[in-house]
Design brief:
Order of helices and strands: HHEEHEHEHEHEEH
Structural class: alpha/beta
CATH superfamily: Glutaredoxin
Strand content: 15-25%
Radius of gyration: 17 Å
Number of helices: 7
CATH class: Alpha Beta
CATH topology: Glutaredoxin
Length: about 170
């Protein structure tokens, strides 16, 4: 009986905290989402629009992660593999750390300093994350050469749709 109770409790926790698949696949960002500010490693503020502009004309993969997120850390080796297998694709990492100190620490601890990293200093709930229905991490998005959303929702870097989207955009 005790095992059944534990299983039931774990099942309820999983149901309550699992990612909700967005009801709508969006193909472009709202003006509010694009004006959302993030910070780089040096504390400089930059908008999502400015980040996208830096990568315009290229395919971009956005990886949402945090050092406190066990699922994110388990996915890091596969995310690195995806990046290695796609050397012509740009990758940026949006951190959901809870403080600048944690952001800096995670970049160092998980060997992310050589990558392009940004941190949501305003916290999880902000115009960008609200617009893209971000309710759990990790999460991956593929952005096309015109800064439109080509793959809106993936929770694993091994999702075959990520590579299919990249391959389609490369043609």
């Amino acid at each position: 009986m005790k095992k059944i109770m534990i299983f039931a409790w774990l099942s309820m926790c999983t149901l309550n905290f699992a990612q909700d698949i967005p009801k709508q696949n969006k193909t472009q960002f709202s003006k509010e989402a694009l004006t959302q500010k993030l910070e780089d490693e040096n504390g400089n503020k930059i908008s999502v629009q400015q980040i996208l502009d830096q990568h315009k004309g290229k395919i971009l993969v956005i990886d949402f992660w945090a050092g406190w997120c066990r699922d994110c850390l388990q996915a890091l080796p596969k995310a690195e593999e995806l990046e290695k297998n796609n050397p012509t694709i740009d990758f940026v990492f949006f951190s959901l750390e809870r403080s600048k100190e944690k952001f800096d620490s995670s970049l160092e601890r998980f060997n992310m300093k050589e990558k392009e990293n940004y941190w949501f200093s305003e916290g999880w709930k902000n115009n960008f994350n609200n617009y893209i229905d971000l309710n759990w991490i990790p999460r991956y998005m593929v952005i096309d050469q015109q800064s439109k959303i080509a793959k809106y929702y993936a929770i694993n870097p091994q999702d075959p749709e990520i590579q299919k989207t990249i391959d389609r955009l490369l043609k």
